[in-house]
Amino acid sequence: MEKIKRARVPTAQYLLSMSERQARLISQAVELYARLGTGQFKTLEYFFWSKLKTLNQARPLLEHLQMIKNGSLTVLPGIYMKSVNEEYKILYDLHQVIRHRLAWDRDPECARWTVDFREPLRASKREDLAKIELTTDKKTRKSSKNEAVSSPHQGRRTPTTTCVGRAGEL
Predict the structure, then answer these.
(1) Sign of CA dihedral 116, 119, 125, 131
(2) Minimal CA–CA distance to 95: which of 20, 14, 24, 31?
(3) Across the 170 residues of the chain, what is the mean pLDDT of every consecutive 10-residue run?
(4) Pairwise CA distance, residues 92 & 139, whole Å
(5) What is the pTM assigned to this prediction?
(6) Which end of the chain is less enclosed by CB atoms within 10 A, N or C?
């Protein structure tokens, strides 16, 4: 008997308008969720830094969770591995796209060669990378339709100046 091929139904497309701060928070949230999905529970330590005693109490529990999820404290699955759930890959792709756009909007003339400025490397095999564009100029807060660039660094020269600030600073 022949297999019936099902036509791929196009997915709906959505447009979300948000502030720079909202974009940063979404980027951080989806990155955290993707990391937890791959068993990187150590990431949760950042939530306990304010109190060392609490961190020391939480660390063994986080290590226990990591052992349950991954069977190891030292070997973690990478986001690009086949064993990683597709939804975590999609979340990580969202993080990369937002992080990349924010980095170039933050300092377009000073492209440090950090992960923030690299073109997002698609982890998901089922979803295309999301698209993000700057719709208002940061300085004038006026609509700037010409700012929409799929690759914000395309055609720019590598700067020779030294940049101030931390890589990946959100």
Answers:
(1) positive
(2) 31
(3) 59 89 96 93 83 84 91 88 94 96 84 81 94 79 41 41 41
(4) 30
(5) 0.72
(6) N
* DSSP-H helix ranges across 38-155: 52-70, 86-106
Total Cβ atoms within 10 A of residue 43? 16
Q: Rounded to whole angstroms, how far apart are CA atoms 21 and 93?
A: 19
**Contact between residue 107 and residue 165 where contact means Cβ atoms under 8 Å apart:** yes
Comparing CA positions, the residue from 120, 94, 130, 122 lying closest to residue 11 is 130
> Are 88 and 33 contacting, i.e. CB atoms less than 8 angstroms apart?
yes
Dmax (CA) for the chain in angstroms is 66
CA–CA distance, 149 with 9 (Å, rounded to integer) = 28
